[in-house]
């Protein structure tokens, strides 16, 4: 900076004072006075205690032996920044000769300089940029960074005495140096190391007279420069006090008393009261540009016109506008030319004139001035341009007409070559429209007085209002210039300077949707830590296409930012998706780190992204964490447990952040299940490490090696279901590989852990004790995975947006509709886990029953057996949980009801087996707990009954002490059973008594008594007989017994049993009347009901008696059915459906089973009666009347539609039974002949018997006209009124209706050709007359016929026993007293009446 001569003179004159008193002999070590020997060192005040112990490590990294100890708070030597003190004492020339000083760096040499950074702590990372905290920082710098705030005052602050930062930093990018200034010292650190491997160098310069600062005093400002090969430092303190050191090294090694001699001191003259310097800019090697808080710009030089060191300042103003005189001087002071407000930036560039420099001064309001700076002449304003109109016009397409404008900062992009006549600038501009603020980056070219805006980059990610109380925003464009960094006080904006679209339309689109085109992002500093930026600088490009910058942050340290040139996706939607994913990844992987610097959630507003965009990004990130495909998740790590824990943390952070959006339930379930799998994987890993430790103790040889189950199980998983290891990449651990890449398939791990025993058992593992060890491993794995998952799900349900009350033991009780299959109860788990539980129970029972093992191998001690039993219980519990959850999922849709019911039935049986088996393991209480939890009353009843039976058995065989214990235990079980009756009511009674009846006799069960037993018996139709016995024997409830017997009779298939039940019902009814349990009217009503049922049974017996004599030649029942069909089924041979029904009825008839009222009517009306068969009982003549009587006594009689249809079918079949066409031919026939033919028809006999019985007078009157019989049953809808056809398909009903339609055709023929419609009323009158004649005995000539007729009438008029046809040939009368007597008919049936 200064010439050698001048510098030498300055320093020598300051040190060699001719009036200085020489040392005395006492002060001289050698005893020689007057001079100091040339080679004698001056005594130093530094001792060995001054130094810290030698440093052998830096930030945990060992230092080389030649560098250890070179870093400390006080340094004896700094070979590059300074020399020893004797070199200073011996003269500046010697000092300069010994200094290792770099040549002045040029821009071309700086481009090749490599900046050495350690890995540091990663703070943020995307595919575009990453931010890391520098940890390789010297202790001296760390001390400054960790310093606490002090009180100071600035004009920009609203209030005085505010807590501000105690230091500030200023970088010299070309030199790779930074100076940190505090109230009492300056620390210079060379952060750029080039390619050297030397330790970092630091120089500490303490200020003289560093008294406590006043609250109003600002911090000193420092700036580094290069002069005469030395690193120089200029410091400006409060009040404009200036100190300049031409050599930082010398100043750092000298003590405070000698710094005054080494440095240049002065003041910045011309500052007003309260005015202080806020910014410095190096203009040339010995000159600087100062910017004050009053908006003025000063030129400061450290050398006068003769080259002597002196501090001079000059206010930069336009001399052409200066006025003379006193008033003119005052006006000049306060004029715009000398008192400029709101300076945005000051930049110095080269000039085409040798010895000159150009200075650009840009105000916030858009005024650009270009000054010519000459070393020894005045500073001249060359150009002044108002850029505001052009900027507003350029930004108008993206806004309404703009109002206010501010230029916040300006940079000279180094990526663009600057020429003296053409200046390339990048402006940071904010434009206000109403209350909205819009930020832009403007690529501007200034040539002479012509200003041109080349490109406009809207900053859509930042719209906050400018805040003058905060530090000024700084704009950085690191090489190679593809990205800009905007440093706000509490945020960093990253903006790409490469746009995929150009022109006004593109700019308008970018303004409407800033995410649609060029990449932009914002990083907010953490608010809770009160971070803000104190200094920043660009770095030379160390790699092609990679930009780099450094940022000092208060109370934090130094952050290193690197930006890659990344090619965005061409599709707008893809770019938005990538940005959305990147922002969420920042939150997930860096928001909760211990060294957190940024507030990532703040950078992603809910309104900026739709739920669909967030959902897609969330699922992608979730999957990348699960399979470790994310670049943020390491795949190789020394601690697998730590890696799994970190991945769980990331998944939790992901779910917490995206909960701000309304994501679908399926997505939230996916996140929950992923988190479950991760914590389950970690639990499995911990179990695996435990098994590895026990591998040598529990030797299980498998394929020639001692192994563990999990390794073998995963080895057996098919390659299609897992990522195969690649030995060429160093992958050799199956377990680590699966837990790293295949956590999403945790269900396979669970399944194969359970199934792996079978795989290993097929090899050399045959010892039961070895099987126990394998079962123990499998159980540990299954429990670790499923128990952890279920507990995690229940405890974290609310965190994932689900109602906690819908979860019980980790099982979701809500709707599973539209959800994928739950991994904890998938098909593989439902198959393998219960199998493992059964296998564990079998082995445990086997080992507990055997006293010792004769097989080779380790013996199983008691603790191992206890663990095996505990494992069996745990596996049974997990199986129950899996079954319940699986059923809930299977029943998610009503259309899957059949499938879910089948699943429930299958799993209920398996669950019951597993729980009941716990009784054999001597842990019945565990089985009871599980059965209670899952409300499995069948299992609960069986366990209770088996346990009670076991206790009773031990009571008989045990000793006194054991008997007392068993009695106590029995009392506990009795109490539990009573509690179950109270808690579960009839459901428990059903299960308990069913189990009790399967184990004991019916009499033993009936002895227990109680209302529960009575209710149980009442609810089970199959136990109606037992209920009747209980009512009669224990309760004497005869009326209840009547109801039970009648209900039982309705479903009784056996004909004999039905008759007995009805007879017993009549006996019980009489007993109830005698005991006063009912009234006489009720008795008569119930008795009539029983009699009608008995009548119907007797009619079926009549049919059997009619066909039975002709079946005696049959060898067996099958032959009897075939013979009966051949003989009596001729009427239905041509009708397929009627033939099938007829056959079914005959089969039941032959085997003495109840065929039902409708089928009995069908048989009576369709049976073929061969004329050769002798019918002594007149069955053939009265079968249609029997059909009508059966219809009247049928329960379906109350159904009017069904009764009407069946009645029409009976009359139609009765009519077509005879040939009325022939009867209608009366030619050459007398009235007697015609009458005999008519009276011989089935129709006439039916009318006669019906009128005689009274059936046709009251209950079922004959049709008024026969045409109404047409169409009965010829459609499927008609047939569905009959019980048999109610639920039959249309095809079958159509075929059946065609059979009825054939009957309709025959009837139609009778009506047309036989004129039956005309005969009908006459036949009815004739039947009534014949009945009256027979009853009154008017015909003397037909006395014998009348007697015969009277016999017939006796059989059908209901006056016989029970109203059915008797086999007695003599006329029998029964009075009303017979109702109270018990008779036995000819077949041995008990008959009341």
Automatic annotation (TrEMBL):
Region (Disordered): 1-53, 1335-1376
Gene3D superfamilies registered for this protein in UniProt: 1.20.58.1380, YVTN repeat-like/Quinoprotein amine dehydrogenase
UniProt keyword list: Coiled coil, mRNA transport, Nucleus, Protein transport, Translocation, Transport
GO molecular-function terms, A-Z: structural constituent of nuclear pore
Source species, domain of life: Eukaryota
InterPro entries in alphabetical order: Nucleoporin_Nup133/Nup155_C, Nucleoporin_Nup133/Nup155_N, Nup133-like, WD40/YVTN_repeat-like_dom_sf
Gene Ontology process terms (BP): poly(A)+ mRNA export from nucleus; protein import into nucleus; transcription-dependent tethering of RNA polymerase II gene DNA at nuclear periphery
Pfam family, one: Nucleoporin_N
Sequence ranges assigned to domain Nucleoporin Nup133/Nup155-like N-terminal in this UniProt record: 125-552
Family: Belongs to the nucleoporin Nup133 family.
Protein's name in the database: Nuclear pore complex protein
Organism from which the protein derives: Gomphillus americanus
